[in-house]
Specification:
Blueprint lengths: L1 E6 L9 H5 L5 E3 L11 E3 L10 H5 L5 E6 L4
Antiparallel strand pairs: 1-4, 2-3
């Protein structure tokens, strides 16, 4: 299964729960402020996303959306 992650960087408060929980190391905390003055999470390695959605389930701000795609063998 392959995933695609989308992070609403303006909604994100940079808590880091998603980055800590991601088993594939897809997410990191960015180096630029958002409009709220927070360093938001960013998809540093989106190609590694498996679509597990752990990050989206943990996000207290509901700032992460994950889409999944199954590949036929």
């Amino acid at each position: 299964m392959k995933g695609k992650i989308k992070i609403d960087t303006e909604r994100c408060k940079g808590c880091g729960y998603c980055a800590d929980a991601c088993p594939s190391g897809v997410i990191a905390i960015g180096s630029h402020f958002n409009q709220g003055g927070f360093f938001p999470a960013v998809a540093a390695h989106p190609e590694k996303c498996t679509g597990c959605a752990i990050c989206a389930n943990l996000c207290p701000e509901v700032a992460i959306e994950v889409c999944r795609k199954k590949y036929k063998k």
